[in-house]
Predict the structure of Protein-export protein SecB.
Amino acid sequence: MAEQGPASGTADPAGQAPTRQVMLQKIYVKDASIEVPGAPLIFSSTAQPQIDVNVSTQTSKLEGDHFHIVITITVTAKHGDETVFLVEVQQGGVFLVSGFANNAERGAILGGYCPSLLFPFAREAVADFVQKAGFPQLLLQPINFEAMYLEHLARQRAEAEGNRAVADPNAAPAH
């Protein structure tokens, strides 16, 4: 998603807008763990566990136009009240995001596009851990991080409007 042009974030000699760039600088596993509390007895069970997948993202600003994104994927497999396995992977990435003067565009890049680039690596790490723990392959389905980001923005707006209504019950509704 990088456009060709002058150096990152600088205007070209013709006075055009800064070059917009999104570049993955570093990708790494920040943290990973697996627990199989019932091993080795759990391997004799033929019951199909209930799989629960939770995904979250966290963004923090580094120096300049660099940002740190972490996707956390937690997979819990349970049979009744018994945990069959628990896998958690935190996949991190450092991104250069420059030339986006509009905060909404930069937010969409950081909240949707960047996590989408990290997800395949996190999905692979989860699959490897589950298999190395002695269980059948677990393939996580693709995730639409752009849609997740838009849902997050909608929730924030709804909460802000709810807080304004509570703060001033006599105020006219916003349109």
